[in-house]
Specification:
single chain; Lipoprotein; signal
C-alpha cells in the first residue's frame, strides 16, 4: 500500500518538469522554466520543495497555451486531489512522503497513510501519465525545455 501511494506521489512529482512560446507563450515558457528548476532535486529524492512546486504547477494550468490546456487541467486536478487528501490528514505533501519512507510507523501515522491511499485510489494515473507526456513533449518542442528543467543551450 505504501509503495502504491509513494508511486502515485512520484508520478505526480515527476510530471512537473513539463510543458509549453507569441508573447503569451514566451511568458508561459519562462514561467515553466522557473517552476521546473527544482525538479532535479525531486528526481534526486529531495522533496523539501514539493509543496511549493505543486502550487506553482497548478498556477501554470491557467497560463498554458490552448493546445495543451486539457492536459494541464488533467494534471492540475490531480495535484489538487493529492493536496486535498494530504491536507485532510493535517500534513503537507513533503511530510506525507517522509512518513511513507519511514520503516516503522505509529498506528496514527499508518492510519494517515491509509486515509491518503484510500482518497487517491480513484486517481487515473494512466491519464495523468498521458497528460504529463503531452505536456513534456510540448515543453520540449515549444519551450526547448527538457524533463530535467533545462534548455538545450544550458546543457
Amino acid at each position: 500500500m505504501r509503495r502504491r501511494w509513494a508511486a502515485g506521489i512520484a508520478v505526480v512529482a515527476t510530471l512537473g518538469a513539463l510543458s509549453a512560446c507569441s508573447d503569451d507563450t514566451d511568458a508561459y515558457c519562462d514561467e515553466l522554466e522557473k517552476v521546473s528548476e527544482p525538479f532535479a532535486d525531486l528526481s534526486a529524492g529531495d522533496f523539501s520543495q514539493i509543496d511549493q512546486v505543486m502550487d506553482d504547477m497548478t498556477a501554470l494550468e491557467e497560463k498554458a497555451p490552448e493546445e495543451i490546456q486539457d492536459d494541464w487541467q488533467t494534471f492540475g486536478s490531480t495535484i489538487r486531489e493529492l493536496q486535498a487528501a494530504v491536507e485532510d490528514e493535517g500534513l503537507t505533501i513533503a511530510e506525507m512522503i517522509e512518513l511513507a519512507q519511514q520503516p516503522d510507523l505509529s498506528e496514527e501515522d499508518q492510519a494517515k497513510l491509509i486515509a491518503v491511499d484510500d482518497a487517491l485510489s480513484d486517481l487515473d494515473l494512466e491519464a495523468v501519465g498521458t497528460a504529463s507526456a503531452e505536456i513534456s513533449e510540448h515543453a520540449e518542442q515549444t519551450c526547448d525545455l527538457d524533463l530535467e528543467g533545462t534548455t538545450d543551450d544550458q546543457q
